[in-house]
Amino acid sequence: MGIFQYQIILACGLCFASDAMEVLLLSFLGVILKSIWSLSEAEENSIVSVVFAGAMLGTLVLSPLGDRIGRRPVFALTAVMISVFGVLTAFCTNYPQILLARFFVGFGVGGLTVPYDALGEFMPSSYRGKRLISISFFWTAGSLLVPFFAWLTLGGNEVSWRTFVALCALPSIVSTVLGVLMVPESPRWMLTRGKHDQALRILRQAAAKNGGDPFLAFPEKTQLVDTDSSRFTGRQWYGQAFMYYGAIMAVSIVFSDVSANPDDNTTNADDIYSDDSNGRSFDFDYGAIIITSSAEIIGLIIAIFMVDRLGRVPTQTWFYFLGGLCILILGLLDFYRLHLIFFAFLSKMFIMAATSVTWLHTAELLPTKIRATGHGLGKFLFLTKVKNRKRLLIRLDQII
């Protein structure tokens, strides 16, 4: 474990951050464009749904490609698509253009399992658990940057939301550059294609970059052997359908639609309030969104501490249960703003801990030759469940 792996962590981590940002910004973008472009509720919902529709298709196309043509080219394609269409979103001038741009952003997001699997294949087994969970800190950083960029740029006019969207595409642009420069093809994947010499050459380069003697680590006449004997089940991903994406969007919607009236006990007088040129308005409780997003940091620390002590399956089971319980409480009871923040914080903390372990566990269960395809299949199972969640989440907001 050395600089070779840390460079790959940086490139893959920024790709992870871009995924988080492109999903979370939907909670802001839908509200903003509904106000500025006078969209209907159905049109606003479609801006969210089309991203997950694109991700479903992207998962079915890009994940098998990761097993067929290699991790590296699919990593590059994923990052390029998110970057290009993320930036193009800022130049859209009408509703159909927005739908098209966000669909292809979602298509790129659908391939995110491939960079994650490539990262896992470069990790020494003794480091894999905690390092693969730690990559989710990039996701959390992206989740925190979105409300920060929103607070920094949004002013209720055409220019401000475009700047906001362009800023959210920056991590993916950097990830594309770093991926091309720093991430080689996975030696494990090469072995499944009989490319023994190329795989050995990459491992020797890695040893040299980490400060070791490549021919001491891998002497002459070394023969690499693929010993995968893993198995896979998609049920654990099915549970994510109603948890992580639902939770982050529900929380964002709750704190995006709060009243700006200072006399309303469910908010405070300092909430940001913006007006567009047509007299319509939108408001976001940036403080509450940032606080609840920071809960993911605590969740990841808990997961890192517990994953090897409690085990993969018990960690997921308990944290999914506790996260779901907090969401249930959040939806059934009537709270003031502080209570909403408290239970939203707990729900995101537990759910982030559980989902980070699910990603790790899936990568460990899958054999190399079908790892990208199988991981993508798991993601497809839960995307089919979240594509139309926005309407349900609006009902949750009305209940609260």
From TrEMBL:
- The primary location reported for this protein is membrane
Does the keyword section mention Membrane?
yes
Q: Where is this chain's protein located in or outside the cell?
A: Membrane
> Transmembrane region positions?
7-33, 45-62, 74-93, 99-120, 132-152, 164-183, 237-255, 286-306, 318-336, 342-361
Query: Which residue ranges does the record assign to the Major facilitator superfamily (MFS) profile domain?
Result: 8-400
* Pfam hit, one: Sugar_tr
Q: Do you know which Gene3D superfamilies this protein is assigned to?
A: MFS general substrate transporter like domains (1.20.1250.20)
MF GO annotations:
transmembrane transporter activity
- Key word Translocase present in the record? no
Q: Which InterPro entries match?
A: MFS_dom (IPR020846), MFS_sugar_transport-like (IPR005828), MFS_trans_sf (IPR036259)
Membrane topology listed for this record: Multi-pass membrane protein
Entry's Gene Ontology cellular component terms: membrane
Ordered alphabetically, the record's keywords are: Membrane, Transmembrane, Transmembrane helix, Transport
Q: What is this protein called?
A: MFS general substrate transporter
